[in-house]
Amino acid sequence: MNTTHTTSNQGLWWGALGVLIFALTLPMTRLAVGPQDAPQLPPLFVTAGRAAGAGLLSLVYLWLTRARRPLAAEWRYVGVSALGTVLGFPLFLALALREVPSMHAAVVTGILPLGTAAVAACALGQRASLGFWACAVLGCGLVLAFALHEGGGQMVRADGWLLLAILSASIGYVAGAKLSAALPAEHVICWVLVLSLPLTLPAALWTWPSAPASAAAWGGFAYVTVFSMWLGFFAWYRGLALGGTLRVSQVQLIQPFAALLLAVPVLGEPLQASTVAFSLAIIAVVLVGKRMPVGTPSTSRNAS
User: Fold this and answer.
1) Would the pTM count as exceeding 0.85?
2) How far apart are CA 34 and CA 134, in angstroms?
3) d(Cα 56, Cα 71) in Å, to the nearest integer?
4) What 3-state class would DSSP assign to 265?
């Protein structure tokens, strides 16, 4: 029991580290693509280029660690994770951030934890208590309330891109978590990126920007390549594997507000008092949800 509690807490800490790394993804992607009135790197290049660069790093890492290849039955999870986290999420996010500020995107993507938990419950057979779901719904309700408060409830085309990004990430995260039960977390994202290389590398070369971009844009691109697309998943998939997808996914509720806070020094976007208030409320909900029971298929069978 004590060992299980310790492992669960380790999963939450690893998940929190991944969330902190991912929180900078929104402002850094915005920095890379630029706004519509001052475009920088093309969204398609940012999507393919960051995956291709991280894929090349993954090749070196897998070779140095002598990682085993995924089994035949595991390749499908690699493929699903690649579609969600390497292609879908970065592309839809980059398209959205060309049209809206990172703070807007941070608020909308705040419902990602509920999406991840819902996909996990359906795909992995994990069962959470009513209290856990109440905390998840309350947290997402706070996120939506913040969106209404800040944007007047208006929906724009970019919100559609962001919803597609949320769906893609949720599916990709769950597939990666499933694979992390059999492979080290670091190897999971590496194999996902390597599998994508035959597509991402030619696409990155084909969409290479013809117009010059600022040093800040290339800096944002470098961050999303090395950290958002690679090292962040080392921590994130390890957290999902140790702490359980349903429970650790709720740490993502903090991510949109961390992104809001980080957008201030990175992009100079103004920070309002309401942001701090909603952030503190979300953190409180996550802490309560952390204490709610979450069962797994194995524990359910053992109990019966």
Assistant:
1) no
2) 38
3) 22
4) helix
**From residue 236, how far is each of 10, 22, 136, 252 by CA, in Å?**
11, 9, 19, 10
DSSP, collapsed to helix, strand or coil, labels residue 126 as coil
* CA 190 to chain CA mean position, Å: 16
Answer yes or no: are the C-beta atoms of 102 and 264 closer than 8 Å. no
Closest CA to 90 of 39, 31, 48: 48
Q: Tell me the C-alpha to C-alpha distance, in Å, between residue 277 and each of 144, 145, 150, 205, 272.
A: 14, 12, 13, 44, 9
pLDDT tens-digit readout, 124-173: 776 777 887 888 788 778 877 876 776 666 667 888 898 899 899 999 98
8: tokens are: 């669960």
DSSP secondary structure of 166-228 = HHHHHHHHHHHHHHHTTS-HHHHHHHHHHHHHHHHHHHHHHT--SS---HHHHHHHHHIIIII
Cβ contacts of 180 within 8 Å, gap of 6 or more: 188, 237, 238, 240, 241
Q: To which residue do tokens 């905390």 refer?
A: 135
3-state secondary structure of 295: strand
Question: What one-letter code names the amino acid at 227?
Answer: F
